[in-house]
Amino acid sequence: MANEKRAMPNILVTGTPGVGKSTLCQQLQERTGFEWLDVGNIAKEFECFDGFDEVYGCPILDEERVLDEMEDKMAEGGKIVDYHSCDFFPERWFDIVFVLRTDNTVLYDRLVQRGYSGKKLEDNIQCEIFQTILDEALGSYKEDIVHALPSNSADDMENNVEKILQWLEHWRNS
Questions:
Q1: How do beta strands 49-53 and 58-61 pair?
Q2: Closest of 89, 98, 80, 35 to residue 61, by C-alpha
């Protein structure tokens, strides 16, 4: 559907846990009126899980069930999707993809504040070091719609909101 222009675009905000996705999405929702779809919340609401990961201490997402729950909403347009992974979403759903990136020392502190430790903390820091989510996005969507944005500070957050609002204005006028 990205080929046929929707009345309003769909935006994906992705990145390693702790990079500021939810904060950015909340600000975008307030500034655009778009509907914010937090995939973790959708999974909880509709019980889209396929077991529990003992190592990471979290439920295992049933991706197919999540996609089924989201399909009709995505067709409407005007959605901001928030999730730390992106390779299972259909390419047609998104008009633009923003991958938030954070310096490792900043991310480390954020994740420790969230209670991450051990393997979960190490793996998420390594994910950011090796730009795993950015590579996943570049491998899943057309390169020209994938944009990496720094997310280390409140200034970065405000700049990112402004960049996305500018992109939306350009999209509307094209």
A1: antiparallel
A2: 89
Long-range (24+ apart) CB contacts under 8 A made by 169-173 are: 171/9, 171/95, 171/96
The pLDDT tens digits for 124-164 are 999 999 999 999 999 999 999 999 999 999 999 999 999 99
**Residue for token digits 């909403």?**
73
Q: Cβ distance 114 to 18 under 8 Å?
A: yes
Q: Are the C-beta atoms of residues 134 and 127 closer than 8 Å to each other? A: no
* Predicted TM-score (pTM) of this structure: 0.95
What is the token pair recorded at 79? 């959605």
Burial pattern 14-27, b for ≥16 Cβ within 10 A else e, equals: bbbbbbbbebbbeb
Structure-block tokens of residue 43:
């999974």
